[in-house]
Write a structure and sequence with these properties.
- The chain is mainly alpha-helical.
- The protein has helices at 3-11, 16-23, 27-35, 42-52, 63-74.
- The chain has one domain (3-74): lambda repressor-like DNA-binding domains (434 Repressor (Amino-terminal Domain), Orthogonal Bundle).
């Protein structure tokens, strides 16, 4: 689950359908992206990021890898 994405959408006061419509994708596809069961294409990631105002590359960052890097740096 991409809770960060849901939170951004809700902060904008938008429904999943509204985001999907603005991005020219189906609501079903957007729901899968928000639930974390699908990763968007770069084109779609950029559209979602534009609508919700965030850096699109966050979809492609490996959070576990970043956490491990931070732990290694702290040690």
């Amino acid at each position: 689950m991409r809770t960060w994405l849901k939170e951004l959408r809700e902060k904008k006061g938008m429904t999943q359908s509204q985001v999907a419509e603005n991005c020219e994708i189906s609501r079903s596809y957007y729901t899968h992206i928000e639930n974390g069961t699908k990763t968007p294409t770069v084109k779609v990631a950029k559209k979602i990021a534009s609508v919700l105002d965030f850096n699109w590359t966050i979809f492609f960052k490996d959070e576990r890898s970043l956490k491990e890097q931070n732990e290694t740096a702290s040690a």
